[in-house]
Structure formats: C-alpha cells, structure tokens
C-alpha cells in the first residue's frame, strides 16, 4: 500500500515538474524575444515583440475583430472536423460491410490518400466558388480519406477468434459491428480524432488563404500584404493556442474514457 502511494506521489511530482518546465520554457522564450527586440537584435517591423503583440491584441479585442476572425476559423474547423470524422467512420463501416466494394475501391482510396491535398485547394475553389463551402471541403479532403483507411484497418485487425466465437453463437453481422468492432476500435478512433483536429485546422487555414473574407488565415494573408506583421504573428500564435487546446480536449476525452473503461 505504501509503495502504491509513493508511486502515485511520484507521478504527481513528475506531472508538476513537467508543467513548471513547460511554463519556464515559454516565459524564457518570451523574455528573450522581448529583450532581443528592445536591444535591436531583432527587427521589430518583421519579428514584432511580445509587448507589441499584446497591445495589438488589446486593440483587436476592443474593436471585436479578433473575436470575429477567431470565431470564424473555430467554427469552420469544428464543423469540418465533425463532418470528416462522422462521414469517414460511416464509409469505413460500409467498406467493411461490403468486402467486394472494398476490394474494388482499395487502389482508389490509396491513390486519393497519396494526393497532395493542398494542391487541390485552388481546384476546389474553382468548383465550389469563393465561399465557406470551398473552405470546408478543402479541410474535409485533408482528413476524410485517412479516417476511412485508419478505421477500416482497425476493423480488419480485430482478433478473428472473437469474430468466430460470436458467429458460432449465431451472431449477425450487425451484432459483430456493434458488439465487437466499434467498441474494440475506440482507441483507434481517439487517435484518429487527435490527428484530424490538427489537420482540419490546417485545411481551414489553407482554404482561408485562397478563399475568405474573414478568419485567421485571411488575417495572415491580408496582414502580410499590407505589412501588418503584428496581425500575422498574432494570428499564428492564436492558431498555435487553438491547436493545443483542441489536442488537450481530445486527450481529456480519451483519458475519461480509459478511466471508465478501467
């Protein structure tokens, strides 16, 4: 019992040390950045500085523009994330359900997965117009094929002895799907979610670079065109924070699931 308590205590201490270390690295980085800007080691017109970015952030909070651009990017990211994940799982289930269709379509899925998705963005904008729809489709195209292939591979990797056992008791294909495949591939799904949320954010930014009138991607492009580098760097920092927040949210959900499962 004492050894278990000591082990848990060591884990808590390790977690605190890691958290403090991360904060220290961030503070040191910001301090060096600000110091380099003040002494002239960095050109503040190009690289800005933490204090200048803070003032820019406050100004954009006052006029509400930062909420507009961040909110639009957040909405497009979450919507494309949900669509690509749900649609990818449904298609993976259909491919597992119909082996002949899976065998016929396999080389086409592989070909689609190997395509450089960012190169498709200009074509998608021509097809679907300079609208939010083209941004969403660009983001979805970045994730849906990998979701399909990853989930399908998870379905096909289930222990065949389990499938034989449930069939021997008269289990139907639907029961195999709902009782074995889907519950057994929750860890695979969690990994898919961790990857997809980042890729959807990247896809949205690519779409906003080419087709947007608002959003963080638009702010980056527009800011670089009029040499408002504070806008550009601030938008990039917000994107980093969003990516970390999304990942931590998925990680938190996965942790809760593992605790309930255990």
Structure, explained:
This protein has 262 residues and is mostly helical. The protein has two domains: 1-42; 53-261, MetI-like (MetI-like fold). The chain is built from twelve helices and no strands. It has helices at 2-39, 44-47, 50-63, 65-97, 99-114, 117-128, 132-156, 160-168, 173-184, 186-210, 216-225, 229-261. Helix 4 (65-97) packs parallel to helix 7 and helix 10 runs parallel beside helix 11. The chain is flat. The mean pLDDT is 86.
In short:
This protein is 88% helix and 0% strand.
Task: Spell out the blueprint of helices and strands.
Elements: H1 2-39, H2 44-47, H3 50-63, H4 65-97, H5 99-114, H6 117-128, H7 132-156, H8 160-168, H9 173-184, H10 186-210, H11 216-225, H12 229-261
CATH superfamily of the largest domain: MetI-like
**How many strand elements?**
0
Question: According to CATH, what is the class of the largest domain?
Answer: Mainly Alpha
Assign the CATH architecture of the largest domain. Answer: Orthogonal Bundle
Distance between the first and last residues' Cα: 20 Å
The CATH topology of the largest domain is what? MetI-like fold
């Amino acid at each position: 019992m004492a050894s278990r308590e000591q082990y848990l205590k060591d884990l808590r201490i390790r977690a605190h040390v890691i958290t403090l270390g991360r904060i220290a690295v961030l503070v040191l980085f910001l301090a060096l950045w600000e110091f380099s800007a003040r002494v002239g080691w960095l050109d503040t017109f190009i690289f800005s500085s933490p204090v200048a970015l803070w003032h820019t952030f406050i100004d954009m909070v006052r006029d509400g523009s930062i909420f507009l651009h961040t909110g639009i990017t957040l909405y497009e990211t979450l919507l494309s994330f949900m669509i690509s994940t749900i649609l990818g799982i449904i298609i993976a289930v259909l491919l597992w359900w119909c082996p002949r269709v899976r065998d016929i379509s396999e080389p086409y899925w592989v070909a689609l997965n190997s395509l450089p998705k960012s190169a498709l963005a200009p074509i998608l904008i021509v097809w679907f117009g300079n609208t939010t729809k083209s941004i969403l489709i660009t983001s979805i195209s970045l994730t849906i094929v990998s979701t399909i292939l990853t989930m399908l591979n998870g379905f096909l990797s289930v222990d065949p002895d389990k499938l034989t056992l449930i069939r021997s008791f008269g289990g139907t294909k639907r029961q195999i799907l709902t009782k074995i495949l889907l519950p057994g591939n929750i860890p695979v799904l969690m990994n898919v979610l961790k990857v997809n949320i980042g890729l959807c954010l990247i896809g949205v930014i690519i779409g906003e670079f080419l087709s947007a009138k608002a959003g963080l991607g638009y702010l980056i492009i527009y800011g670089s065109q009029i040499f408002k580098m504070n806008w550009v760097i601030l938008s990039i920092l917000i994107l980093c924070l969003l990516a970390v927040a999304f990942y931590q949210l998925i990680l938190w959900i996965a942790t809760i699931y593992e605790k309930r499962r255990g």
